[in-house]
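User: I'm putting together notes for a lab meeting next week and I want to include a structural view of one of the chains we've been expressing. I don't have a solved structure, so I'd like a prediction I can at least talk through. The sequence is below, exactly as it appears in our construct file.
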Amino acid sequence: DQVCDDVVGRLVGDGEEICRPVAPVVAVVGHGGMGKTVLAQCVYNDARIQEYFDLRAWICVWDRLDEAELTREILQSTGGADDSFYDDSLEVLQEKLGEMVASKTFFLVLDDVWNDEGKTELENRAVWNKVLAPLSSAAVGSKILVTTRMKLVAEVLNAAYVITLDGLKVADCLLLLKETVLSGETMDFPPELLEFGRAIAAKVKGSPLATRVIGEMLRNTRSTRKWRAMM
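Assistant: Thanks for the context. Below is the predicted structure for the 231-residue chain, given as structure tokens.
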């Protein structure tokens, strides 16, 4: 919640806007399972974000760096594309995107961005410069939020601010494990399993995803053999 509040504040704050060819980028960087997408969803659905921006769009990028496909998905996410757009060229798609965001505050989330290892850094930069070029017509205050496992992606996208998710503390992993195992019930955590729980919380290296997966596997069981197997 604290990190979400910090990111939202940076996105809607009245800080000095830097003159850029595209909207300023905020990047969330972290290993898989650290909660990057969950954080981005928290930000995207925040009431302050919805009130501040005229238009919002969310696309999952993965390892796809096709300019036309990405532009088409941004249009679809804003409700501005239909089936007929699949026959449009990149130039036409970008013209339509530029018209859609013109003079409007636009918030774009690019989730799970990877660099194309078959391209040089300059070539990757060129792809994103092309994809994001239509956003130059958007109003001042428009922003882009990127989630990625690679710090290089933040550099390629010229991120103005980078948040690194290093994972949860052991004590927080233990709390999450207890919550998952108990399914939100108010009963006390079995004391005979507490030491196993602490060992598991230390083993997951701060990953909330790993903690939840293990918690699901151990739900409703007090078998010390099963708990010991997870250590």
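A couple of points you could mention at the meeting. The two ends are 29 Å apart (CA to CA). The first strand starts at residue 25 and ends at 29.

User: Perfect, that's what I needed.
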